[in-house]
Amino acid sequence: MKIICIGRNYTDHISELKNEKPEDPVIFQKPDTAILLKKQPFFIPDFSNDVHYEVEVLVKINRVGKHIQEKFAHKYYNEIGLGIDFTARDLQQKLKSKGLPWEKAKAFDGAAVIGEKWLPKNEIKDINNLNFSLLKNEKTVQNGNTSFMLWKIDELIAYVSTFFTLKIGDVIFTGTPAGVGKVEPNDKLKGFIEDEQVFSIQIK
After folding, report:
1. What is the phi-psi region of residue 169: left when phi exceeds 0, alpha when psi lies from -120 to 50, beta otherwise?
2. Which of 51, 86, 165, 166 places its Cα 20 to 30 Å from the Cα of 68?
3. Torsion of CA 8, 13, 15, 16, to 10 degrees
4. CA 35: distance to chain centroid?
5. How far apart are CA 204 and CA 172, in angstroms?
6. DSSP assignment of the chain, as one string?
């Protein structure tokens, strides 16, 4: 399986990092080795002094598709999840300043948290008006709603599939809202979709 991530999909987060609003979705990938193993803590890597959390709504692909039309995109997933795109922000800024790819800052081992619980799409009232949040040490640090996405989930699936064949089990990270910040040893992160907790991560 592959992990396809969307960057700059919330205006407030674009402003937060002083980035330009893109004309098209920004796409990057993480390897399967980036997935944080279940019930394992996240260890801050030695090569960064500024690792940030970025909570994101996830979509799990359930059939093979290429050049998917937006009107048919809803047929390609039936579960919604939540995760964290951990980012070595100091390393990312260094790479960006040189015009280099971000992989070392985004795709390192453990950099992709995929929540243990997936919610059936047919139990969600409105996929484009879904609340999600991240708590750090019991304090809410990120609050998001999918209605604020620049590109909605079905648009993303259609767009991504023009470049990459989507396969069963692939996961799309759909972007993060404002509120990203640094993690420190002994922090505890909890992710929620609406009022339901879907993951809990310890930082080491």
Report:
1. left
2. 86
3. -130
4. 12
5. 26
6. --EEEEES-BHHHHHHTTPPPPSS-EEEEE-GGGBPPTTPPBPPPTT-S-EEE-EEEEEEE-S-BSS--GGGGGGGEEEEEEEEE-EEHHHHHHHHHTT--SHHHHSSTT-EEE-S--EEGGG-S-TTS-EEEEEETTEEEEEEEGGGBSS-HHHHHHHHTTTS-B-TT-EEE----S--EE--TT-EEEEEETTEEEEEEEB-
Q: What is d(CA 144, CA 130) in angstroms, rounded to the nearest whole number? A: 8
Q: What Rg do the C-alpha atoms of the chain give, in angstroms?
A: 16
Question: CA–CA separation, 116 vs 81, rounded Å?
Answer: 8
pLDDT digits (tens, 9 = 90+) for 116-162: 999 999 999 999 999 999 999 999 999 999 999 999 999 999 999 99
User: Is 0.85 topped by the overall pTM?
Assistant: yes
CA distance 52 to 184: 9
Short-list 53, 60, 48, CA closest to 201: 53
